[in-house]
Amino acid sequence: MITHFSHLQLNTVSVQGVKQFYHGQLRFPIVYESDNEIRFQPTEYFTLSFKETAESLAPAHFAFEVPYSEFENIVNWLQSAGGVTLLKWPDGRIVDDFETGMNVYFRDGDGNLLEIITHHYINEGILTPFGELKILYLREIGFPVDSVIDFRKLLVDIFNFKLDKISDTFTFAIGGTSHAVIPSKKRKWIPIAMTALPPTMKVVFGVSSSDFMEKVKTNLSTKSIHFDEFKEHGRLNFRINEYDFNLRLTNFPEEIPMLLNLPYSR
Ligand SMILES: [Fe+2]
C-alpha cells in the first residue's frame, strides 16, 4: 500500500528566501543545502525540498497534520515566535472549526499555500510530534487538474486509493496518511480564493512492500503509462498529467494509518 507522502520537491526563485521562511521562521531542520537546492526535514518520515529555477512559479498547496491537543499552542506559536501571518476567511476569522477538526492557512515567500490541520479522531501517541510545529505527518498535497473525474479514477486504478468528499470539482484521494487534494483548476483554493494552478512538483509516495510496487507497475502498463524503475534504490518514477510521481520503499510502518484511526485505513 501507499503509506504516506515521503518527499515533496517544489521549484523556487530563491533558495535564500525559502531558507529564511522554512528554517528561520518554521524552524524546519536543514538536511542538505547547495547554491540551487535546499532540503528540509519537517518530520522523521517526510522531507521537503526546493530547487532554484528561472521559471515562473505556480503556488502549491500542502497541509501538515498536528495533534488536536496542541492545535491552539501551535497556532499561537506560529503567530508569535514563527512570525507568520495567518490568512483570513472573507468574514475575518482565522481558525476554521469544522465538523471533524480545525485548520489555519498561511503562505511562504513564493506564495505556496500552507495549512496546519488537526482532527479530533486522530489517536495521539502513535507518531512523535516533530519540531516546533509538532507535525505528525504531511497530510495533503494539492493537484489542480482539468478533469477531477479522470484524475481521481487514475489514482484509484493505479494506487488503489480511497475517495472522499467526491464531487465533479473536488475529491480527496487517500492512501495511508497521504491525501491527494484534487480540485478543478476552475475551483479556487480556500480561504483566500487563490487560483488553483498546477505547480511544477515531484511527489514521492512511501510504499510498504515490493509486492505493491509490482502491482503499480502492472497497473501503469495496463494504462500505457511509461515508468522508469531503479530497482537497487527501490524506486519507480512516472508522470501522470503534469505531475511527477515517484514511489519509494520506506520503513514507515504499514499499520500507522490504522493506529492513527484514519477513517479510510480500516
Ligand atoms: Fe487543504
What does the model show?
Residues 4-119 form the VOC domain. InterPro entries: Glyas_Bleomycin-R_OHBP_Dase, VOC_core. It comes from Paenibacillus chondroitinus. The protein has a single domain, classed as Roll (2,3-Dihydroxybiphenyl 1,2-Dioxygenase, domain 1). Helix content is 18%, strand content 36%. It is built from 5 helices and 16 strands. A hairpin with a 2-residue loop joins β6 (96-98) and β7 (101-107). The longest helix has 13 residues, at 210-222. The protein is globular and about 50 Å long. It binds fe (ii) ion (FE2). Fe (ii) ion binds next to β5.
Summarize the structure.
It comes from Paenibacillus chondroitinus. With 266 residues, this protein is of the alpha+beta class.
- Please give the share of residues in helix: 10-25%
Ligand kinds: fe (ii) ion
Structural class of the helices, strands and pairings? alpha+beta
Q: Please count the helical segments.
A: 5
Oligomer: single chain
Organism: Paenibacillus chondroitinus
InterPro entries: Glyas_Bleomycin-R_OHBP_Dase (IPR029068), VOC_core (IPR037523)
Protein name: Glyoxalase/bleomycin resistance/dioxygenase family protein
